[in-house]
UniProtKB/TrEMBL annotation:
The lineage of its organism: Bacteria, Bacillati, Actinomycetota, Actinomycetes, Kitasatosporales. The keyword DNA-binding does not apply. GO terms for biological process: heme biosynthetic process. The keyword Transferase applies. SUPFAM superfamilies: Periplasmic binding protein-like II, Porphobilinogen deaminase (hydroxymethylbilane synthase), C-terminal domain. This is Hydroxymethylbilane synthase. Residues 1-206 form the Porphobilinogen deaminase N-terminal domain. It catalyses: 4 porphobilinogen + H2O = hydroxymethylbilane + 4 NH4(+). Tetrapolymerization of the monopyrrole PBG into the hydroxymethylbilane pre-uroporphyrinogen in several discrete steps. Signal peptide: none annotated.
């Protein structure tokens, strides 16, 4: 999926600058090779660190990331800048079941069923909906996860799996989707569905080129979400969700949620701002409202791995 995402950025650059030559440089990161839970190894920031290091060294000119992988509790590495955010993909989470299963919704799963997901945010919200569920950890590429779900690779024994719809769309696997969770049931991760391009802050040519493919609406919405997450100091083990949308009148509306790991306690805030120029301020205000409702206590009740991010979901 990482290659597909890099190809998407390259295609937009080619449209913006016909004749531009690009080359994709694959990078194997410690997040790709770590066999255990990411929360025990530093979170999804592991996927970002190695790629950004290549950028700092001048070995590549642009780094492409899923925004939800980028750590939300610390600034970018020295000398790097966010130059573009692409139009946001679908942010919904979806339910998948093993081949041959008759289940079409979460409600169809028998009591005590097992659901596979690596995201603490998803786990908390699923348990809030169905406290009887048994949650299983799963890692690997999307195709590998589906093979495990179907039992082809030392099956998980899971009755269902929850993944991001955007990844399945990019891989042409939407036929596996049985149910799309409404945002009122499962709120997405901060930065969900957003691809971000980093470049060196002193690289004026790359910065100018990438700004031509930036999507201002997505950039504003993601800025509000990231401002909220940064203020919360949310980490890999904190079930934090946030979603900002732009209304027809240009107003921003940001909803934030913080959960205990078992989904039994929740802090919730939902505020608006006049427009994109107040995106960061909106995130700060939503953060403050969440803190007033006990978010700090909820977050501090979870162990904090070093260098973590707000969403340990599936890896591309």
């Amino acid at each position: 999926m990482a290659l597909a995402q890099a190809a998407q950025v390259a295609e937009l650059l080619h449209r913006a600058a016909p004749g531009l030559a690009t080359r994709t440089v694959p990078v194997i990161t410690s997040g790709d090779t770590w066999p255990g839970s990411l929360s025990h190894a530093g979170g999804k920031g592991l996927f970002v660190k190695a790629v950004d290091l290549r950028l700092q060294r001048g070995e590549v000119d642009v780094a492409v990331h899923c925004l939800k992988d980028v750590p939300g509790d610390r600034p970018l590495p020295q000398g790097l800048a966010v130059a573009a955010m692409l139009p946001r993909a679908d942010v919904h989470d979806v339910l998948l079941v093993p081949e041959g299963s008759p289940a079409t919704t979460l409600a169809d799963l028998p009591p005590g069923s097992s659901v596979a997901t690596s995201s603490v945010r998803r786990r908390a919200q699923l348990l809030a909906l169905r406290p009887d569920l048994r949650m299983l950890d799963v890692r690997g590429a999307v195709a590998t996860r589906l093979e495990k779900l179907d039992g082809a690779r030392r099956g998980l024994g899971a009755d269902a799996m929850v993944l991001a719809k955007a990844g399945l769309v990019r891989l042409g696997l939407t036929a596996r989707i049985r149910y799309e969770f409404p945002l009122g049931e499962v709120l997405p991760a901060v930065g969900a569905g957003v691809l971000v391009a980093h470049c060196r802050s002193d690289d004026e040519a790359a910065t100018a080129l990438l700004r031509r493919i930036d999507h201002p609406r997505t950039h504003a919405e993601a800025t509000a979400e990231r401002s909220m997450l940064g203020g919360l100091r949310g980490h890999c083990n904190s079930p934090v969700a946030g979603h900002c949308v732009t209304g027809a009148d240009g107003r921003l509306s940001l909803r934030g949620l913080v959960f205990t790991l078992d989904g039994t306690r929740t802090a919730h805030a939902h505020l608006q701002a006049p427009g994109a120029e107040d995106a960061a301020g909106l995130g700060t205000r939503v953060c403050d409202e969440l803190l007033r409702h006990g978010a700090r206590t909820i977050i501090d009740s979870t162990a904090r791995p070093s260098g973590a991010t707000g969403e340990p979901g599936e890896r591309r």
